[in-house]
Design goal:
By secondary structure, this protein is an alpha+beta fold. It has helices at residues 11-14, 20-25, 65-70, 79-93, 117-121, 155-162, 164-170, 191-194, 208-223, 240-255, 257-269, 275-290, 301-313, 318-321; strands spanning 2-10, 33-36, 41-47, 50-54, 58-64, 101-113, 130-134, 138-143, 148-154, 179-187, 231-232, 296-297. Helix 11 runs antiparallel to helix 12.
Length: 346
């Protein structure tokens, strides 16, 4: 579930000796660079895929925790994996990483879908409160206040572009003939406020309650995205009232919910309706589209929603979290204990 993470560990919170050169010695060979100013030294290096930055007072870790642990992010970390990954990171850096603060957190999962990913991307619309950006393989919704974003994209094409070695190794194996859609939520600013915490430390990742809250946030953000729904009328309409309701719901979706909300805002700004009337109108429209009566939805997103709901309700289900039969060059990575992990010294 967890992917990219940004951790800030302050020296004052570690309660251990802090020697930036000793920390640098624990990073991968040949990666450490030194920047010296008149009054401070700043080191930056790599620990596998993770970027590590150090000065006299602070250490910053940035990168995909999933790639650090699995060597890829096609698999998804469950609770035990997350705990083990943090333990591994602490062991390799010889620092209490769980005392650090989390400043960014990405929640992502990969879903095997029936159709090509582009067909799913074509189904999404402008959504209230988000800036929308689309290209051929990726759909981005950025929250207008900048706190978080939602991304849906073609995972196989992303692997082919950015992780050629991994793609080449697996293209005739687990990836062969599959369409894989990745849905991820990036918590980028004020994540403690988003999740209603005073502050968020790495130790929170040991809490299943906290991970369930992340899971809920991931799920609810998907539900906040509007789709260009296509409907057919059901065969059991028995009254004009039922037909009228279905016609109204279909008209709302055809016009686009975001467009209707923009029109309500235009009416408010022109003084034709009050702010309370606008809020009431939005509430009633949301109620209508949340209860689509017996309209039959025809979009691929129905299938995708089923998979997302399954993942939300079954956080640790192997059926979806791990793509079955995944074979990578580091297939034994998950079973390694911390004591088995050894690295060359810088």
């Amino acid at each position: 579930m967890i992917d990219t993470i940004v951790i800030i560990l302050r020296k004052i919170d570690t309660h251990v000796d802090w020697d930036i050169y000793q920390i640098a010695d624990r990073l991968d060979i040949g990666t450490v660079k030194t920047i010296t100013s008149s009054d401070s030294i700043f080191l930056t290096g790599k620990l596998k895929n993770l970027k590590v930055q150090i000065n006299e007072y602070c250490l910053k870790v940035t990168g995909s925790l999933t790639k650090y642990y699995f060597d890829n992010n096609l698999q998804t970390m469950d609770y035990d994996d997350i705990v083990a990954a943090i333990d591994c990171l602490s062991d390799e850096l010889k620092l209490p990483i769980e005392r650090g603060y989390i400043k960014r957190l990405d929640i992502g999962r990969n879903i095997v879908v029936k159709k090509i990913v582009k067909q799913y991307l074509d189904c999404y619309d402008e959504s209230d409160g988000y800036y929308r950006d689309r290209n051929n393989t990726r759909l981005l919704y950025k929250k207008t206040n900048g706190t978080h974003s939602v991304t849906i994209y073609d995972k196989i094409k992303e692997l082919k572009k950015n992780e050629r070695e991994f793609y080449q190794y697996n293209r005739n194996g687990v990836l062969h003939g599959k369409h894989i859609l990745r849905y991820e939520v990036k918590l980028e600013q004020k994540i403690n406020k988003l999740l209603k915490y005073k502050s968020i430390r790495v130790v929170h990742l040991r809490s299943e309650t906290f991970l369930n809250k992340l899971n809920d946030f991931w799920y609810m953000r998907y539900k906040s995205i509007s789709t260009k729904k296509t409907f057919d009328f059901s065969a059991d309409i028995a009254s004009y009232g039922a037909l009228e309701r279905e016609l109204l719901v279909k008209a709302i979706h055809d016009m686009g919910v975001a467009n209707i909300f923009k029109y309500l805002e235009h009416l408010r700004q022109s003084g034709k309706i009050t702010a309370n009337q606008k809020a009431y109108g939005k509430k009633k429209i949301k109620e209508l589209i949340a209860n689509t009566s017996s309209l039959i939805e025809l979009d691929p997103t129905v299938e995708l929603m089923s998979g997302i709901e399954f993942l939300h309700q079954n956080v640790n289900s192997d059926e979806f979290i791990h793509l079955k039969g995944l074979i990578t060059k580091s297939e034994a990575k998950k079973t390694k204990s911390i004591s088995q992990i050894q690295r060359k010294k810088f």
